[in-house]
Amino acid sequence: MSLRPFYSLMGLMAVLAMAGCGMAGSSNPEPTGQPWRLSDHADRLRAASCPDGVAFERAPALTINVVSLDMSGLQPNRHLFGNTRVIGGWELTSEDPTFGGLSGLAVYPSGNLLAVSDQGAFIWINIENNAPTSAHMAPMLGPSGTALDGKDVTDAEGVTLADGLALVSFERSHRIEAFDLEGCGAAARAARIADLPDQVYGLSGSMRPTGGAEALSYSPGLKELLIGIESSGGFGQPMGRFDDAGVAVMTDRLEAPAEFALTGLDTARFHPFALFRHYTARSGNRNIIAYVDGAATPPNSLVDRVRLDPSVPVDNFEGIAVQNLDTRTQRIWIVSDDNFSERQRTLIMAFDIN
User: Fold this and answer.
1) Contacts from 288-297 at CB under 8 Å and sequence distance 24+?
2) Are 291 and 283 in contact (CB under 8 A)?
3) What is the pLDDT of residues 4-23, one digit of tens each?
4) From the CB of residue 137, how many other CB atoms can be counted at a distance below 10 Å?
5) Are 291 and 272 in contact (CB under 8 A)?
6) What is the layout of strands, in order, in the sheet containing 237-242?
């Protein structure tokens, strides 16, 4: 597997320009050729998400039951590669029927987790002694301050944290929203970053309603917002960036393993990490965690670090978050989407990688 190199600033501008020429007849806005930077938009997004007169609200506590998984079956060179160490795995359950559908994951500097549900909720998960212990949950609010309602607008799939803002990608109504959780907590309102048209620049086909920005990451090095599109529209898994007008353009493709789909992405200090999923009724769920290694041969190769299959605890893993522990070690957290099905589970796993 390999990743075609991320474009430099000049390369991105050239791709944006070519995409604009190729879509001259589209009703979509034309790309500007200038990359989107959070620093240029953060003040506007905070003001819209946490307006004057709206006070900080703490999310209500969510009673969860946490059960440790037996992770002893994970074997080197079959499930674990390189210097990868299992920290733990846990199943989370709750009597609250609105808990579930965890599709995206982010990690705070404190080590606590933030998950998003594809039913339109934030779930804050407290981590103590390297394990989840308690949680809070609140519905996502729209621009007017009322809870998002209806599957067309609540289908959150990816989340990333940047400068106190939670940036969230949605399918069906394809878009990226910002929530000032630091300023207003559960009272934060959705502030629009970008709408994603069904026909994104650089994709030969249209995105399916459930094939949108499944993966979302804010790159602290590039200071750019990156997305991974589940609708391929050609070879490999499309990766894209936004220009400063909020227009998304596909600039890269991940050469994913055969039949695996990209479900999560996080870019931390060292390597970008990608989460892939494959499912059939016959073979069950399978997942791969891999990082992009620019020093590998060929350049920018994807290097497997974890492979999960039905011989070990596994489910529909869709969210990934990378935590920098020190100058050498990163902790990888993943979470599964139970689809609110009695046949599936909400699992969290953690791995340390040197």
Assistant:
1) 288/257, 288/260, 289/320, 289/332, 289/334, 289/351, 290/1, 291/353, 292/3, 294/5
2) no
3) 433 333 343 334 343 443 33
4) 22
5) yes
6) 213-219, 224-229, 237-242, 248-254
